[in-house]
Amino acid sequence: MKTTIAQAANYEEQTVTIGAWLTNKRSSGKISFLQLRDGTGFMQAVVAKNDVSENTFQLAKNMHQESSFYITGKIVEDKRSPLGYEMQVENIELIHEANDYPITPKEHGIEFLMDHRHLWLRSKRQHAIMKIRNEIIRATYQFFNDNGYVKIDPPILTASSAEGTTELFHTKYFDEEAYLSQSGQLYLEAAALAFGKVFSFGPTFRAEKSKTRRHLIEFWMIEPEMAFVDHDESLEIQENYVSFIAQSVLKNCQLELAALHRDISKLEQIKAPFPRISYDEAINLLKEKGFSDIEWGEDFGAPHETAIADHFDKPVFITNYPADIKAFYMKPHPDHPEVVLCADLIAPEGYGEIIGGSQRIDDLELMKERYEQHGLTGEAYEWYLDLQKYGNVPHSGFGLGLERTVAWIAGIDHVRETIPFPRLLNRLYP
Predict the structure, then answer these.
(1) What is the number of other CB atoms lying within 10 angstroms of the CB of residue 296?
(2) Which residues form the Aminoacyl-transfer RNA synthetases class-II family profile domain (predicted)?
(3) Which among 44, 246, 398, 428 could disulfide-bond with 86, CB atoms 3.0 to 4.6 Å apart, if both were Cys?
(4) pTM for this one?
(5) Domains along the chain with CATH numbers
(6) Distance between CA atoms of residues 35 and 358, nearest Å
(7) Angle between helix 185-195 and helix 382-389 axes, rounded to 10 deg
């Protein structure tokens, strides 16, 4: 019976065959302990000299790290194993003998590991992080599909910026100017006015020369847009979504969280509703915490976000930022037009902003004013102005950065480990 490590528990006291790689081994006289991986998980296989042929025992004893093989044996209970079982080996069929694998079971510098990212992905830690990433993606699709959203794929090559910034990757599109998308939001607004509730999940690009542990050049975003939804309703959707993915990881990634030594008590608290604090209140809180130089109208940096988040035991919404430091499409507060109906969701434990969202402008004359203020003239934005002309409605949306969310839920210090092949300021390889 051919199976996988993840399914082997279903075959207790039965003999099975698994295709695997060797991650490590140790031998003691007449017994060898092989640490296996097969992509679905990690497991120990025990090779006893008295239970196998001499060729099989010598093969087990002499195989090198990352050699590949089919291994056959009985699945037995082992309470010391995280999986709860191991294999008693009967036979090994070598597929490929690996020699001089560069990532040995010792400490390596981060630059060395990043240079060998194509191989580093095989490690137990990276496997756990990628499985958590995958669970967040799976839960994302479940949440939005179960709640009546339609997935829409916005273009990656665009003629304009979603937020009117200059931090874009520029390219030629035949005889036109084009950019790599930094957000699909504007296109999703158009889709929301066609389908009601939509979401996208795809890569985005920011040409920011940043080296912080929170920034990537290429990253993935989940961006929902919702017609007939106001700002407060959007906040409820956001907190329910984040709660859902956190609880899904807790339920389905117990082995991976344990492998990363994640304090799951922190994640168990991630349940809606989340606390909310206005920008004005956040300024006052920061001054109380010793940030005496912070002034109204300034954006918050990482130290400010961390200080605010430390005041709560859940993610916290900071709402109603000054209009001057937010994007042109955000709707002004009806009672305080100097601020906009927006919110950033700040993750606890120093992970910073994971969501930015707002209610969008739905007034043609106001949008024309914004165009003039931000210099958004020209054909590139004409289609977006059409949304205001033809049947616009109150609508809201937000964007969640996947890699920052993975880092927070998995308890990872740097976002470079939360994406298979990170693109950083100094790294385009491998």
Answers:
(1) 10
(2) 130-430
(3) 44
(4) 0.97
(5) 2-96 (2.40.50.140), 118-417 (3.30.930.10)
(6) 49
(7) 30
